[in-house]
Design a protein that fits this description.
The chain is mainly α and 114 residues long. 58% of the residues lie in helices and 0% in strands. The longest helix has 66 residues. The termini are far apart.
Length: 114
């Protein structure tokens, strides 16, 4: 009784070696699939959302560029309308300076011929 078993191990006295078998009909199926809730928007929704946001950004940038260009045009028009007045003031200053220089030259050349 205590001799070697056919699998190479020693037999234990007083212990019957019966293999455990599954219950009749088998074990119940193990749910291995993960049932996770839907987490967030789909890929298509992310693409469309991103495209919408980028499109809005381009639109707002274009509107700001139009506004800025209108401001520059208004500023340029104001400068051009003031230009004749500024030029006339500069001409008066030049003429005054020229008269002073001619008067000074006439005073220096008073006793000379030429």
């Amino acid at each position: 009784m205590g001799g070697p078993s056919k699998f190479g191990g020693a037999k234990v006295i007083g212990f019957s070696s019966t293999q455990e078998m599954p219950p009749p009909g088998g074990y119940p199926a193990i749910k291995s699939a993960r049932f996770l809730p839907n987490r967030g928007p789909s890929g298509a929704m992310l693409w469309f959302g991103s495209a919408f946001i980028i499109g809005c950004g381009f639109y707002l940038t274009g509107q700001e560029n139009l506004r800025r260009n209108a401001d520059k045009l208004e500023k340029r028009a104001a400068r051009l309308s003031l230009y004749p007045f500024l030029q006339s003031e500069e001409d008066l200053r030049y003429l005054k300076k020229e008269r002073e220089m001619l008067k000074e030259e006439a005073e220096l050349m008073k006793g000379r011929k030429g």
